[in-house]
Design a protein that fits this description.
Length: 123
């Protein structure tokens, strides 16, 4: 995601501009930070990242490692990412965090793109 930062009265706000459309996908995702290991569910995915529903979103900029199974895939996707957006649920959107993939292996990117195409064709 490209970000545009604006500084106002000493606070920096970031506006996100998605490069890829999101596709709804609910799968269990295990992720870890330097200190903890978590198991939650995704809400949506694209080749750039994933939104994880959680009551305890990590702070912006937190590095995480992720592992999840795509439908029909034999092996899990293993990658790393950075928390780029956090939602506390106050806006009516689900609580959780958006994680931008940092090092998505090419085979995982191809699997995600293939799955997204298949899901969009069934709608």
């Amino acid at each position: 995601m490209a970000r545009v930062s604006v500084e106002t009265a000493g606070q920096t706000f970031s506006e996100e501009r998605r490069r890829w459309d999101r596709t709804d996908l609910v799968v269990r995702v295990e992720y870890s930070t330097v200190d903890d290991l978590f198991s939650e569910f995704t809400r949506d995915i694209n080749e750039g990242g994933v939104f994880i529903e959680t009551d305890d979103p990590q702070p912006l900029g937190t590095a995480v490692t992720l592992q999840f199974h795509l439908p029909g895939a034999a092996d899990p996707v293993k990658t790393s990412g950075i928390v780029v957006r956090s939602n506390d649920g106050a806006t009516g959107e689900p609580m959780g965090m958006a994680v931008e993939f940092e090092e998505l292996p090419p085979n995982a990117r191809a699997q995600i793109n293939e799955m997204i195409r298949a899901l969009r064709q069934t709608r």
